[in-house]
Amino acid sequence: MIDPVRFKKILAALLKVLVIVELIGAMGQGIAGKGWARFGVDLIVAGVLYVMWERLTAAVGERKEEFRRKIEGAPQDIRLLDALAFSLLSTDTIYENIPPDRLRLIVISYTLIALGLVAAFANIGPGLMPLVVSGALVLGAVNLVTWVISLERGAKESLQTELKLAQDVQMSLMPKEDPSLQGFEITGISVPAANVGGDLFEYSCLGMSGHDLFGISVVDVSGKGMEAAMSAVFTSGALACECRHTSSPAAILSQLNRGTYTHSRRGHFVAFLLAALDPVARTITFANAGQTKPLLRSAGSVTWLDAPGLRFPLGMQQDTRYEERNVQLNSGDIVLMLTDGFTEAMNPQQEVFGEDRVVDLLRQPDVETLRPRDIIDRLRTAVRTHAGSAPQHDDMTIVVVKVL
To answer: Residues 98-133, buried b or exposed e (16+ Cβ, 10 A)?
Structure first.
């Protein structure tokens, strides 16, 4: 198949050749008729046009991205000159976004337009015949391009429908209200990005004994869209099943890892942090499979909590056995469990928010007086301020636990 970009360059080259031939012919006529003044004028005009073309191309080329932003940012109010400059300067970029099965139609459209130009200048019958033929060819080309655009818009709308369905599935897995646990105040939230990922958090009861523990899971499934949402559904169902058999976070993650490895395609992982709160002993026991480490504020000091042993995400290795850590909690302590959507949020300069900013926020003296919901709001505000006009690239999920 002919490359449409190359085909366009060939047409542009032919147009330049025709212009040069026409100019040479005009100068030849001037010389033959001894019109030296006319020859000099044509030569000067040719030089001026060449210099103007080179400088205009260089000057406008530097503004290529500016024209692109105007077209993408204000589709309802596009200036004709901006659209023309964008279409001429960004040909390669435009064709890169067209699927291969649509490129043939674009090539045919160019061919029809070229034939239309030929028909307009050739003597194809008397009267209006050249105009009718060229008009029909150009109209056919325009119709083909319009059809390509409608096909791509339909595909885009189908993708948006899938993303919306995936987002609904993702949000349906998460708690609709804060849990009630004696001695603790707990709040969680998940803010999905435009391209739906697989973040979620859940609360569960661990174990079947009389002294049950309160489980908190923070999950980040790799991938986007419906695939990630379906993986989140599988992970949620498997967790509910395993929680009935044991209250050990390490044992639950080890078992979930085997199921994830067996049923997921290679290269597909699940970052999983599972914590168990004991309201009687006032402890938190957690195991971590590739998730961001929990952050503890205790007596004004802020510490990232490391889990012992391996920390591979679920599904990376078949026989990974996770270990857990138990931490004593005291009144006023605060525990943050969050995904990397917070720490890796970027601003327009590609600078990440980073873990240090999260630590600094939790170190602020008045944090100990805040409720978990207020802490989350403060962190989200800080991330939004840092990101500025940059879009949210990843889901942001966080659960905050405060010991009363």
So the answer is: eeeebbebbbbbbebbbbbbebeeeeeeeeeebeeb
- Summarize pLDDT for 108-123 with one digit per residue, the tens: 887 787 777 777 776 6
Tokens of 67: 């024209």
Do the strands 213-221 and 198-206 form a parallel or antiparallel pair, or are they unpaired? antiparallel
Distances (CA, A) of 184 to 209, 284, 334, 335: 21, 11, 10, 11
Length of the chain: 404
Per-residue confidence (pLDDT) for residue 95, from 0 to 100: 67
Query: Could you state, in order of their start, the residue ranges of all structural domains in the chain?
Result: 4-165, 175-403
Contact 112, 130 (CB under 8 A): no
Listed in order, strand segments (DSSP E) in 119-238 are 184-191, 198-206, 213-221
Do 277 and 216 form a contact (C-beta atoms < 8 A)?
A: yes
pLDDT number for residue 1: 47
CA dist 78 and 80 (Å) reads 6
| Token representation of residue 395 | 């889901």
Q: Whole-angstrom Cα distance, residue 276 to residue 214?
A: 5
| Number of CB atoms found within 10 A of residue 161's CB | 10
Helix (H, G, I), strand (E, B) or coil at 251: helix
CA distance 167 to 230: 11
Q: HSE on the CB side for 120, CA within 13 Å?
A: 11
Radius of gyration of the chain (CA): 32
CA distance 303 to 358: 11
Kindly state the DSSP code that residue 173 receives in the 8-state scheme: T
Tens digits of residue pLDDT in 140-181: 777 777 777 777 666 666 656 666 666 666 666 678 889 999
How much is the pLDDT for 138? Answer: 77
269 with 316: CB under 8 angstroms?
yes
- Give pLDDT, residue 267: 66
Report the alpha-carbon distance of residue 367 to residue 272 in Å, rounded: 27
For domain 175-403, give the CATH number. Answer: 3.60.40.10
Q: Which residues contact 396 (CB under 8 A, 6 or more apart)?
A: 190, 191, 193, 199, 338, 339, 341, 342, 345, 380, 383
Query: Which residue did the predictor score with more confidence, 336 or 47?
Result: 336
pTM: predicted TM-score of the whole model, two decimal places: 0.63
